[in-house]
Amino acid sequence: MAKEYIIGRVAESAVTVPAEKVGVSGRHAKIIVCDNGQWEIEDLSSSNGTFVKDRDGNFQRVFKKVISENTVIRLGQEGHSSFVFIAHRALADEDSYAYEFRQLKKLLKYQLADEEAMEKKNSRNMKIVKFASPLAMALCIGAQYVVPALKNDPGLNLWISRGAMAAAPVIIGFFFGIDTRSVKALKQRRLKNLTCPKCGYPVSEFDIQNMQCSRCKAK
Ligand SMILES: [Zn+2]
Question: Model pTM greater than 0.70?
Fold first, then answer.
């Protein structure tokens, strides 16, 4: 027999929804844990909708969807009137957020690895771009000895050298540039994914390692 957990403002809700979360309906959604271990979420025609967080940390509206124990669910529209929790909370001890903090630790590990890889790539590319200008100059000096037209026309040679030196970093930078958009996207993902399971505000690395939110003291 599949187990069903009603979540909402009603007394029998499997997860306690704080009274101020007025965007949550009485019987808002249902979490189903199937016999084969599969988890599902189903919206129970709620007023403000049910949303699940995707890999990038953005909430997508769902009606019925297969999820995992670790899926982050939001009941209601974004803002203070909505309620956010991890699916596992339907089974968890009321006041313990240890499970969620363990998940945050894993997420932090992935996040730090991605940030480190991005930093490495950027510093490597910076070296390549720095090297581009002297390399272009060296090639131009070399060309004087190989191409007769350049050898006989110092003016033309100077013009080409200057052009190459100016253009090289721009052209090479285009292919090996600092990926500021991806850096920004990673920062965004960190803020969206590493949030306190109770108060919903972003948590610091220290909080995650400590397994306690310094803002609301959830642990
Ligand atoms: Zn908190």
Answer: yes
